[in-house]
Design a protein that fits this description.
Helices cover 13% and strands 38% of the residues. By secondary structure, it is mainly beta.
């Protein structure tokens, strides 16, 4: 077989394989969902991040991610916010959610994409021994979501709205 004939045959095989792969891939793999997320479909993680002003403030991040196979939209602000100490007793933590104001964006959440809620507080000494935070998402206020809190804080906390993560 000549080189040009072999090259043509190899090109034909590669193109045929690519065509087969293109037809096998689901057509709706990246179709944006239209339904809101239910709290029971989400997992939550709270972490302390790097503050852009580390001398004066601390940054905490709440990440909301869909369980396997879930694809939905989140929007708005957290509801029914509560804090507990490391023994599970309620804590009186001062916070303000006046920073969680409209317009609200629709954030696509699935097992890969996540939504974020940012929380700022001032830098302080010892702080309150927060053990966990509980809240609900606007679409299902009856479902309480709880996650461990990463470290003590000095209030008050400034809580933002649900948004796409900032990178």
């Amino acid at each position: 077989m000549k080189k040009s004939t072999m090259r043509q045959a190899l090109t034909a095989v590669v193109l045929a394989g690519a065509a087969v792969l293109a037809t096998v891939a689901p057509a709706s793999a990246d179709v944006r969902p239209t339904r809101p997320c239910a709290g029971s479909e989400l997992s939550v993680e709270i972490a302390e991040g790097y503050s852009p002003s580390p001398d004066t403030s601390r940054l905490f991040m709440i990440f909301l991610k869909g369980h396997d196979g879930v694809s939905c939209l989140l929007s708005g602000a957290l509801d029914y916010i509560r804090f507990y100490d490391t023994s599970g007793r309620p804590l009186d933590v001062r916070f303000s959610d006046k920073y969680a104001v409209a317009p609200f964006e629709q954030v696509w959440v699935d097992d890969y994409r996540r939504a974020a809620v940012y929380i700022w507080t001032s830098v302080g000494s010892s702080g309150l021994p927060i053990g966990s935070m509980a809240f609900s998402v606007p679409t299902t206020p009856e479902v309480e979501m709880t996650a461990p809190w990463p470290s003590p804080v000095d209030g008050p906390l400034r809580i933002m709205k649900i948004m796409a993560p900032v990178s």
